[in-house]
Design brief:
Two copies of one chain form a homodimer. The first copy, chain A, is mainly α. Helices cover 68% and strands 0% of the residues of chain A. Chain A is built from nine helices and no strands. Chains A and B meet through helix 1, helix 6, helix 7, helix 8 and helix 9 of A and helix 1, helix 6, helix 7, helix 8 and helix 9 of B. Chain B binds a DNA duplex (30 and 30 nucleotides) through helix 3.
Chain lengths: 211, 211
Amino acid sequence: MQDEGIEPNIGDGSRRILDAAEELFADRGFDAVSMHAIAQAAGISKANIYHYFPNKDALYLAVLRSASENLRTLLQEAINSHGSVSEILHHFANSHLQALLKRPRLVRLVWREILEKGAPRAKELAEQGFSELFSNLVELIRNGQERGELRAEIDPAVAAILLIAGNVFFFQHRDTLRHYPEVAFANDPEAYDKAMVELLLLGIATPNPSS
Amino acid sequence: MQDEGIEPNIGDGSRRILDAAEELFADRGFDAVSMHAIAQAAGISKANIYHYFPNKDALYLAVLRSASENLRTLLQEAINSHGSVSEILHHFANSHLQALLKRPRLVRLVWREILEKGAPRAKELAEQGFSELFSNLVELIRNGQERGELRAEIDPAVAAILLIAGNVFFFQHRDTLRHYPEVAFANDPEAYDKAMVELLLLGIATPNPSS
DNA sequence: GTGGCCCTCGACCGGTTGGTCGGTCCAGCA
DNA sequence: TGCTGGACCGACCAACCGGTCGAGGGCCAC
């Protein structure tokens, strides 16, 4: 039968296990983390983990499920806004990137699962967050087009992908970007998002006077 | 001329090992791949691997070095072009994405290493490809600004990141994107790049606010 | 008391891991 | 012809893996 809403047995014991496992899985991946290491990080014995979770896969799945849900609700906040399309997009980009930066462990964990090819343990689960976000953003851009604030010729999906990709790329490579002198915004995600959305809105080409 | 000048012993034996290891490491990651599996995939005995490589780490490093070099030369082709800025950017984006799609194993392998946090085995090695690409693209956009074809107000680094991020995102999620009805270009990278570069050039906002 | 009921644990299991070792095969060369 | 050295392998090793088991201990109802 199906589980009803929320996992029934989330006590203090399993919570500490989940926390420890989440960090380790996010940092090193499924295979590189042993149950012994998780137990040690949680401050309990390895056998005790098996009192709460039947096996390693189930533990990983529980961690992923928890992370996916948390990440989803976190990202959901990005689409609650109003105003002009420009304001909405600015708010969306900023909230989205802030959400990613707020819980980097969750993001890395979920992303790791999405990118895995060998053994997709719960790909759909990990993808659901992106799915909602993407659909909502596409809808949002489409509304902007209908209201005439955005050009009708553009593909909303391309614009949505660019916005999300820009944020994800910044999140994933912010440490690397810090090393480049060309990058002035590596430590300032808000400035980055501001520049990015303005660039997306106005384009990089010099406007043609005879348009 | 078969001598590459760097690695002294690249014979037929080690080549097959590197090929097999590259595929397995790219698909499943370092820890999930056993030396036995690599030997089996290469059609040799496990002990024979140790005739060419001192240990698993050295083998992984050799695979990563080879992949990084190949990927770098592959990406290098993207920056050789001329014409107007618009043409150059279109060519760059297209070549870049084609390069990614041409050798997905290399890309996944290198990207996996970049994203790893627990044990960065050769992060700098994996990042060098992106480094060159990014610097060249920034320079390219800066030239366009000096020639007046691109707006002077934009940050070249932001534009460069958006372009690369858009391609990388498409590459990494093309399988997922196929499931969305909003996405018409999931099987057509050229169409995607065309739309993306045009969007970047002209922006998504209507040029004249509500008249 | 004492019997159940969760937690918690050390000790243990079979299997797999990265890595080693002694030895075989065979082309090249004297 | 015999020797040499690189390519190659089956068998083996200690360590570790995920997972099991039986036993303790605190706690509450009786």
